[in-house]
What we know:
alpha/beta; 18 strands; disordered C terminus
Amino acid sequence: MLDWLVIGGGIHGAHAALVLTARAGVAADRLRILDPQPTLLARWNQCTGNVQMPFLRSPLVHHLGLGAFDLFEFSRTPEGKPFAAFAPPYDRPGYALFQAHCRHLLAQHRLTELHLQGGAVGLRRLGERGWQVETPDGALEARRVILALGLSDRPAYPDWARLCRAAGAPVRHVFDRDVHTAQLPLWRHAVVFGGGISAAQLALALAARQPGTVTLLMPHPVRIHQFDSDPGWLGPKYMRAFEAETSLERRRQMIREARHRGSMPKDVYHDLRRAAEHGELCLREANVTGATPQGDGRLLLSLMTGDTLETDNLLLATGFEPQRPGGPWLDEAIAAYGLPVAPCGYPVVSKALRWARGLYVMGPLAELELGPTARNIAGARKAADRLAHIVERGQANRSVVGGLPMVGTVGQR
C-alpha cells in the first residue's frame, strides 16, 4: 500500500508530488502519480502549445519549483539561459523558459519514475486503512489520495457548435485531444472563435504563419484584465472576506464574480490591434447562430449581425466547461460515502483540503476553500503547501513521543 497516490499528472499533481517528496520528506517509493497520458504534463503541454503563447499570463513566481524565485534562478543557469525571457509587467516568463524549467524539475526530482499511466474509474474506502482506486488495469491502494483533477477533458462548445459537430460539420476546439495546431494544413481563410487570451494568442500565431488569412471572431467586446482574477485574491485582501463567508452558495458567487472569463491582458490586445492595422488578421465582433457545411471542408457561419462568414478552418477557443471534474466514478464515491458537497456539486473540505479521512483535493475541486485562484498555478502552490504541512505536522508530532507513530495524526486534519 502506498502512502500517497496523486490522481492527475498535470501542473497541480506534478507540483504536489514534488513538494511532498522534495520538501516534506515523503519517500519516493511511497508515492505515485496516476494519469492516463503517456507523460506527466502532457495535457498542459498540448493545450498551451496549441495556442502558441509567447509568454505566460502568470508572473515570475508562479511555477512548479519549490522556492518562489526558482524559475528566475534557473534562467541564469547554462540550461536555462538559452530560454531566458521575461515580459512586463510582473516579469512574466517566456513559454519556452517555463517549459524548460518544468522539464528540468521532472528530471532533477525523477518525477517521471513516479508516473503510473492509467485513469481512475472507481474509488472505494478501505475502512481506516485508506482508499482503493480502480483503474482499467487493476486496483491501487493508498493511505492518502489526492484528487488533482483538472478541467482539460471538457472543452466548452457553444450550443450552435455542438449541434453542427453532431451533424458531422468540421468544427474543432483548440483544446480537443486530437487537435494539434502546429500540424494544421494550409487554409484559405481561418476563423478563430473566442474572446479571451487563448483565442487572441492563437489568432496571432496563425496570422504569423499565413498573414492576411485569419479572422478573430469575438462573441463579445474586448475585456482587458492583466490576470484572470484580481491579484488581491492571492492574499488576505480578498481572501479574508471569502474565508469568513459561511454560505457556500455565496462563496460560489464570489468566485464567479472574481473570474475575468474571456479576457486578455493589455499587451496581447495591443498585439492584436497592431496585427489588424497591418492587415495580418481581421478583428470582428459578432456571435454565431449556426454553421452550414458548403462542401470541400468549408463552413458558412451565420452571424447574429445578419451577415455570414466562410471558413475552411474553424477553431473554437472558448475555454472549458465549468462542471466539477471527475465524472461518474466520483459521483458514485460521493453517494456511497456521503462526501460533503455544496449546492454547486463541488467538495466541501477543511482548511487542510481534507474531504474525508485520507482523501484530499486540489485544483478546481479545492476552489470553495482556496477561492478563484485554486485552478491556477498559484492555486497549485497554495494547495501543495497545505498538503506538505499535513506531513510536516505528523513528523513533528511523532518526534514528541520519541519517534513512536501517533495513530490517526496524519490524515485527520
